[in-house]
Design a protein that fits this description.
This protein has 646 residues and is α+β, with helices and mostly antiparallel strands. It contains 18 helices and 31 strands. Helix 5 (146-154) packs antiparallel against helix 6 (163-178) and helix 12 packs across helix 14 (362-372).
């Protein structure tokens, strides 16, 4: 029988022998592409600098003055900003849209994390396989959705789970993580996930504790709380905190009667972080959202059992009167009344529907629209001061609550305008953010929040996802009246080193990849703004490790040494040029370039002081390289020292 330790590695599929590498790079210095003459804003929050960026085999090889170096192709970025590609951690992309992703490339987005708000299938392998074979214009990772899991086990009805139900759901969460999920997403405002109590949600998702992942949740606003955003945010933080996950208050907002309360909501996040539960958020730059017409206004009891059951209740005069009353309460508390509701499927304002139906009750007009069809809704909820407060908070990422769609297929301007709108409106025009901070919120911050280790910063060894835009012209053009108008200013976009957007137009290149989160890529606070170090040395029977890497706050690159001898595979690995060092408690990762055997490659080294997925808490080292290279080894306990330790 396998030991718990050996069995675990077998399940994860990560104890790998050295793989065969592709043909070695020639000794002549030759890059695939050099981006010349731009101002590099690297994503760390550090000031932009004039620098060139060289790319080899889809990875960043060098950053600096490269006047004497040659490449097969060049991009002139004179007068432009060169940044990491933007990471959208809240995506509702469609499979067809991802094949070209024009609306996202036009915004500078290179990576999307799908299955937001608890949605998506429960089998990620099948979903991601289909996306991969269809071809991807941008990178795609996936969450495993709590709502999807709850619905698959519990159905559409409001009932309590048995112990067997809970175990089935826990198994599905665990399978999703083993299949590469970046987080356990939830939309507790949406039925039937809405029917789960906070305690029941926690019993399901805390199986993810040793995976150190995140819990992005569309906060649940209930009539019992008077539709309070504060109560919803508190619930998200409490569920995640008790489950050992990173809470992400997704598309954060202060709705309806609580408009103007952003400082109080952000204080809740800060207090949770101070108590040991690092809390993050994401936000999009609009004061109206988009959802189903019934989803957030028809009461939960009326939706119990699905649409057919809802229509039966509409036909019952007593139930109908109660539904109308409850819907009006939700509408007033969340969206300021019928003036806050536009029915996209019906293409009319709710106040206009009231006139057409000859009724004075907005709830009755809503019910009549739903009897015809459901469809979507634009829901106005907030004030500008709250949006700016959320946008400028240091733990809030920019995300669009949108995603890649077939051209022209969108009814909210966020699908075409979110990222350029932040850059043009809130950076250049209003100066609410600096360029460096805005880019950080679109790149390294969201990457760290969900666990990415080799994207989100322009540094040696990082994947070459890059956006190049004109700071003088970048802006959104989409409006609620013309939601598919293309933005301006994003000139070029590279996805894994290939040009996917050139001179403001798609190239048709499908160099996007399916990204799978490994067990050693924790959700974490970004560490790019602090001094950090990692070191370790051992000569054990199977491995010989000599590691000492450090990086200053705002430093343009890490410095130090890494040499690794694996006696099992007889492989020597040595880092020649470190790129970026990232740290979290007991964990560190460093990207760079160096030799794996006789071949020069980009690779990432990840060390664990006490691996939480190992029953004995062993120290481990993981090396991820080009061409799918992966090597994991156990080393003597407490080999590694990481600072800061908290």
């Amino acid at each position: 029988m396998q030991s718990g330790h050996s069995r675990q590695w077998a399940v994860l599929g990560v104890l790998l022998a050295a793989t065969t590498l592709t043909q070695a790079q020639t000794t002549t210095t030759q890059y695939d592409l050099i981006i010349r003459g731009g101002t590099v804003i690297d994503g760390s929050g550090s000031p932009g600098v004039a620098a060139d960026v060289a790319i080899v085999r889809g990875h960043i090889a060098r950053v600096g003055a490269l006047a004497g170096q040659k490449a097969a192709a060049e991009i002139d970025a004179t007068g432009l900003y060169v940044t990491p590609g933007f990471v959208n951690i809240h995506s509702h992309a469609t499979p067809e849209g991802l094949q070209r992703a024009e609306n996202m490339l036009a915004q500078g987005v290179t990576t999307e994390i799908i299955n937001a708000d608890g949605g998506g299938p429960t089998d990620l392998d099948n979903q991601l396989h289909r996306l991969r074979i269809a071809g991807l214009a941008v990178n795609v990772g996936a969450n495993i959705g709590f709502n999807a899991i709850w619905a698959s086990v519990m159905g559409p009805n409001d009932r309590r789970p048995t112990p067997e139900d809970v175990q089935k759901m826990r198994s599905l969460v665990l399978r999703g993580l083993e299949q590469g999920a970046y987080g356990v997403s939830a939309g507790l405002d949406y039925k039937p996930g809405y029917y789960a109590s906070a305690e029941e949600v926690g019993r399901v998702v805390d199986v993810a504790r040793p995976w150190r992942t995140s819990f992005p949740n569309h906060d649940r606003l209930t009539p019992e709380s008077n539709y309070s955003s504060r109560v919803g945010v508190a619930e998200t933080i409490a569920i995640a905190g008790r489950s050992g996950l990173v809470p992400i208050v997704t598309h954060m907002k202060a709705q309806g009667r609580e408009q103007g309360s952003a400082p109080a909501l952000l204080k809740m996040m800060d207090e949770a972080t101070a108590k040991g539960t690092y809390t993050a958020a994401d936000v999009y730059p609009y004061l109206a959202g988009q959802s189903g017409l019934a989803a957030l206004m028809i009461p939960g009891w009326a939706l119990d059992g699905g649409r057919d059951a809802m229509l039966e209740r509409f036909a019952n005069p007593e139930d109908r009167a109660r539904i109308v009353k409850d819907a009006e309460s939700a509408m007033q508390a969340r969206f300021g009344g019928p003036e806050g509701v536009y029915a996209t499927g019906h293409k009319k304002e709710l106040v206009d529907a009231m006139k057409e139906f000859g009724v004075t009750s907005p709830g009755e007009a809503l019910v009549r629209l739903l009897e015809q069809q459901d469809g979507g809704a634009i829901l106005r909820f907030g004030v500008e001061s709250d949006l700016v407060a959320f946008l400028t908070h240091p733990s809030t990422s920019v995300a669009c609550d949108c995603g890649a769609v077939v051209p022209g297929n969108a009814s909210h301007p966020r699908f075409y305008g979110s990222f350029p709108r932040v850059l043009g409106r809130y950076v250049r025009e209003q100066k609410s953010l600096t360029w460096e901070e805005a880019i950080r919120k679109m790149t390294s911050l969201p990457a760290a929040t969900i666990g990415l280790v080799n994207r989100g910063v322009i540094a040696t060894g990082m994947a070459a996802d890059i956006a190049i835009f004109d700071p003088a012209t970048v802006i959104d053009r989409a409006t609620f009246e013309a939601p598919t108008a293309m933005p301006e200013g994003v000139r070029h976009v590279l996805v894994n080193g290939k040009v996917a957007w050139r001179d403001g137009a798609p190239t048709g290149d499908r160099s996007g990849a399916v990204l799978l989160r490994g067990p050693h890529e924790p959700s974490r606070a970004a560490s790019t703004g602090i001094e950090r170090k990692v070191s370790g040395r051992t000569q054990a029977s199977e491995v010989d490790v000599n590691l000492s890497i450090e990086q200053a706050p705002g430093g343009r690159g890490a410095r130090g040494r890494f040499r690794f001898l694996d006696r099992t595979s007889k492989t020597t690995i040595e880092m020649v040029e470190p790129g970026l060092l990232q740290v979290a408690p007991g964990w560190a990762a460093v990207t760079g370039r160096g030799k794996i055997g006789n071949d020069e490659r980009a690779f990432t080294v990840i060390v664990e002081r006490a691996d939480p997925l190992d029953e004995r808490g062993s120290s481990t080292i993981t090396i991820l390289g080009e061409d799918g290279y992966q090597l994991n080894r156990i080393v003597p306990v407490n080999t590694f020292r990481v600072s800061p330790s908290r």
